[in-house]
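Dear support,

We are seeing what looks like truncated structure output for some complexes. This example has two components. We would appreciate it if you could run it in full and send us the complete token output so we can diff it against ours.
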Amino acid sequence: MDLKDKLISSFMAFENNVDVEHPVHDVRAEAMKNFEKKGFPSKKEEAWKYTSLNSLQKTNFSIFPKEENALEYKEVKKYFLHEIDTYKIVFIDGIYSSYLSETTHDGVDICLMSSALTKPMYKQVIDVYFNKVASKDESLTTLNTAFSREGAYIYIPKNKMPKKPIEILHLATGNEASLMLQPRNLVVVEENAEVQIIERHQSLTTNEVLTNSVTEIFAAENGIVDYYKIQNDASTASLIDNTYINQKDKSVVKVHTFSFGGKLIRNNLNFYQNGEYIDSTMKGVTILGDKQHVDHHTLVHHIEPNCESHQDYKGIYGDSATGVFNGKIIVDKIAQKTNAFQQNNNILVSDKATINTKPQLEIFADDVKCSHGCTIGQLDEEALFYLQTRGIPKKEARALLMYAFANNVLSSVRIPELKTRINKLIANKLGVNLGFNL
Amino acid sequence: MLKISNLHAQVDDKEILKGINLEVKPGEVHAIMGPNGSGKSTLAEVIAGKEEFEVTQGSVELDGENLEEVAPEERAHKGIFLSFQYPVEIPGVSVTNFMKTAINESRKAKGLEDMPANEMLKLIRDKSEMLEIDRKFLSRSLNEGFSGGEKKRNEIFQLAMLEPKVAILDETDSGLDIDALRIVANGVNKLKSKDNAVIVITHYQRLLDYIVPDFVHVLHDGKIVKSGGKELAMELEEKGYDWLKQEAAI
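Here is the complete output from our reference environment:
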């Protein structure tokens, strides 16, 4: 049985465990129909030309873990940003771990999707926001919608800001030979409210994991969202991340994606600007080796006038790693005075590494500033020689140059301890100790 | 200290250095002058160990050791320093952190521990004061957005920090106004001692008013065609290079 058939038959079992009378279940059932019709995307589709899900579909993933698993904090401490105090929403094999989590209802709601989808007190928010910006058409998103039950639920009312950043951590224990996870997150930031979120997926063994995640983010007028995705998973873990962002007037949403590890990573990052004077920022650092594969698909839809979008993705690919960057910008006819910038720069450090990069601009307004640029290159030999003449050995010199190349993406990280952590991950990834904290 | 014998070097089968002989002793200042394309920068880069160039004949020796198989960073550890004509920009790495890395890599190569932080800070303070470098400058990303003068001053700051035996200054005067030139030259003069040597590569005589050479060599078509004292530089300034080219052709 391939994965699609298994998912379809699992849906019936799933229905035995949720309230099928609840209005949310109508949304699920509708989504399941769509997935049944469409199935997994194939390489024949333009958007999936360079990323194949074939081998994943042949893997016999468990759709639900057989049992609840526990972990001690000390086993997983290193995956938290433990240098600072944070709210934590932690899942072990897809099941909420109250032991490792720290949620709150003190002025803001930082808790669970399973509560939000079932308890009456959240009904109003769910009615307004759940599955409202996520695609009802894209097959992997609808697959997630069909199985939506658990994930992070974050609601920040008007003028509020949580006291500390929020970490969403998905841990896989490896107790299943191969496990599929489908977390569903909802983040709502009301007028003048602000939130900082760090999301990470971590497999603790070499057993295979496939995560198909959907996150919906709503930023109301003047809302501020900083979202950091740390993708540094085991080489047997694959991640399909579907993130949908709906922004209103003067809101500022920044998404940073750090892709340092995993078997296959696909990021579908979609911004919809439903208002004026909106700022949308997407930044990414990708450093991959071995046979790792990453595919960044971004979309910014400029729907109203006077908005900005900024995209800056840097990639360093070694060994036989492969990368894709596809950045789509749509500027509607009405969206005059749009400023849209897109930059994708790549360094290939091995002959076998490849990158496919493609800007895709659809501009229907005539008074706009749109720029895009992509480069693919090697490290600058002259710069290497310069560093060597200062006594820095070639390996360290290469690392220093790669670090410098990726660096400007880090300048907008607003949590200093996170920046330090990312710097350390980069230094580790490059295999050097540069003698100072980068 | 530095001995260059019958040095031939080529890139892509094109011979650029065609038999250079030069001996530099401790305490000496040598100037290498010559028209564009004569091989001045190539000579500097071959001494520093740039791998792009293939040495086909002859040798470069430092304190009696043939440097042929020695990597650029090891040459730096042994005491060769090249001030670049076009220093490279390294965003995200401050001048201070860059110098820490450079100094500690050099110490590591010599089997020494990292320099203690307070010692490093004092060294940085002393050398930056000597070169009239603002402290704010040290926390900026290396060469990023620096003016031509700032880049060159930063090169000399690195020279001061690393204290090499042989410092090669490649066109350090280009792009400098007269004030910046004076500061850079004063810095070099303060660093000069009886134990180290300086090779100044320049197109013009201007810098040699400030860094006074003991010897002047004229390079033309990959060879030293004339050597003399500092008065040779004056003569070149007056007459240009054409008379030498003619002399060399005879």
